[in-house]
Amino acid sequence: MSYNRRSILGAALGLPAAVAVGSVATATPAAAAAVDATAWADLVLEPGITAQTGATPQVRIVTILGTAFLQARGAITCSLTADTKIATLPAAMGLPTWYVRATTPRNNSQGINACRFEVNTAGSVTIYGANSGNPITWVQFDSIQTIWR
């Protein structure tokens, strides 16, 4: 039997944690060995950026069959009127070798309800898309899952 990355990614990451752990734990040894996830680590937030109650912004790396993905969760409250550095990756995480980008939900303003989340090669996390006429007041990270390189 062969396993493709999409089916393993869906089994391991697209389901609630309790179900995913059960699926991976009961999978054949080849499939179970193909998924590795680091522990969640808190982003180091910049001044003026606040974690929403019960939703501390965190990141981790999940590797599936040799392909690494950045996952994020949590949410922030902010008042962004320009492209802004909001955080730094945790020191223990290491740095990407190239820019890591994803689209994530933000407050709906003038019909715009998504912004760009980007990690640069220095580990800075920046939110793009805000301006003075369309400020970003919150960003939610649970949808972020993107290739890490």
Layout of secondary structure:
Layout: H1 5-13, H2 17-25, H3 29-33, E1 35-37, E2 41-42, E3 44-45, E4 50-51, E5 58-64, E6 67-73, E7 75-80, E8 84-88, E9 100-109, E10 112-119, E11 124-128, E12 136-140, E13 145-147
Antiparallel strand pairs: 1-5, 2-5, 3-8, 4-7, 5-6, 6-13, 7-12, 8-11, 9-10, 10-11
Helix pairs in contact: 1-2
Give your account of this protein's structure.
The protein starts with a helix and ends with a strand. The chain has helices at residues 5-13, 17-25, 29-33; strands at residues 35-37, 41-42, 44-45, 50-51, 58-64, 67-73, 75-80, 84-88, 100-109, 112-119, 124-128, 136-140, 145-147. The mean pLDDT is 87. By secondary structure, it is an alpha+beta fold. It is built from 3 helices and 13 strands; from the N terminus they run H-H-H-E-E-E-E-E-E-E-E-E-E-E-E-E. The strands form 3 sheets. Strands 1, 2, 5, 6 and 13 form a 5-stranded antiparallel beta sheet that branches.
Question: What characteristics describe this protein?
Answer:
149 residues, alpha+beta, 5-stranded antiparallel β-sheet, 3 helices
